[in-house]
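Lecture 7 notes: from sequence to structure.

We start with a single chain of 349 residues. Read the sequence below before looking at the structure.
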Amino acid sequence: MPQIPRARRAETRVRLQDIPVDGHKRVLLAAPRGYCAGVDRAVVAVEKALQRYGAPVYVRKQIVHNIHVVTELEEQGAIFVDEVDEIPEGSHVVFSAHGVSPMVVSAAEDRHLHAIDATCPLVTKVHREAVRFARDDFEILLIGHDGHEEVEGTAGEAPEHVTVVNSPAEADTVVVRDPSKVVWLSQTTLSVDETMETVNRLRTRFPELQDPPSDDICYATQNRQVAIKKVARDADLVIVVGSANSSNSVRLVEVAREYGAKAAYRVDYADEVRQEWLEGVATVGVTSGASVPEVLVQEVLEALAEAGYGDVEEVRTAEEDLMFSLPKELRQDVSGQRDDRALGGRNAR
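Now the structure, written as tokens:
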């Protein structure tokens, strides 16, 4: 069975050296960071499906965009595939947090798969918006990255009505049929600033452009960007923990650089932090994307402490207590009782 490529952490890690610098060494730790409620819900869904149905449980695409999470779930018996036609008929399959198109749902039904939909409810909201606006014959300008799983799922709800706008520059060239019936939606994990620049450019060209009923960029993406903006202005270096295919993690690196960090890098694991990044650095900012377990951040902090950055100050800009119910198939245990992990979210773990 084909496996989605992933990387494992190094068996040994080179210890960072404690080299003197001008000023007091410290870490500014952004908060909120790491797991959001939608990610936690999706990961717990795979874990509970394995407990309920036994291995293997198949997952279409990566359940969330994090190498460590995918590897751990594989070790528990999850099998990650690119498409449902790779899954034996009659098997259990979990749809990832990024959502799927109706075509994928139909393909799973054709193979008699037992599907568990772990789509983040905030992504589902965007899907419903796409369906509603398409029904009213609006042209939908979907701000996002072509090829991203979330964009493919949303666009698949109404492909004849959706045009993907990848960047502010594309807003200047996109063509619509009727400028009086156009609306914008967005991928949930984008940079807030870049998205609004794209919207403003679109509105300059299409003054009757309608807004979605509510903000599409998810609360966790926004909160993590706000926190790293505050950290970045005082940081010589920012380290973002997150995987290369995690849109929101990549955006955090970009936001850190835009808001004052002298340098910013993304790592999956602590062993990827390089000694030369710390040369002349007094203040290190640390954060993590919305699909990153906290253990990986703590390992980075431990590595930095070895290099003399043991003074850690948390910079908090918001509190998060949102939780989502698990998919309906998983809200009860095998005896039919409500499971005490029926809610996803950090406080329910």
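Residues 239 and 286 are 5 Å apart (CA to CA). Keep this in mind for problem set 3.
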